[in-house]
Amino acid sequence: MPVASHQSKIYDSNREYRLHPESMMGKSSFDWPDFYVVGAGKAGTTSIQTYLKKHPQVFIPKTDREPTFFVTAPPPPSMKPQYCTGDLEAYKRLYKDANGHQAVGDKSVGYLWDRNVAERIHAVAPQARIVIILRDPVERAYSHYHMSVRHGWESLPFLEAVQRDHSESVRSNYWWSHPQMYVELGLYYDQVRRYLETFGREQVGIYLLEDLENDPLKVMSEICRHIGVDPALLDMEDMKRARNQGLVPRSKWLFDVLRFTVSRKVRDRILPESVDVWLRESPLFFKPYKPQWTAEEAKYLQSIYEPDISRLEELLGRKLPQLRKSWI
Question: Are residues 81 and 191 in the same domain?
Answer without folding.
Answer: yes
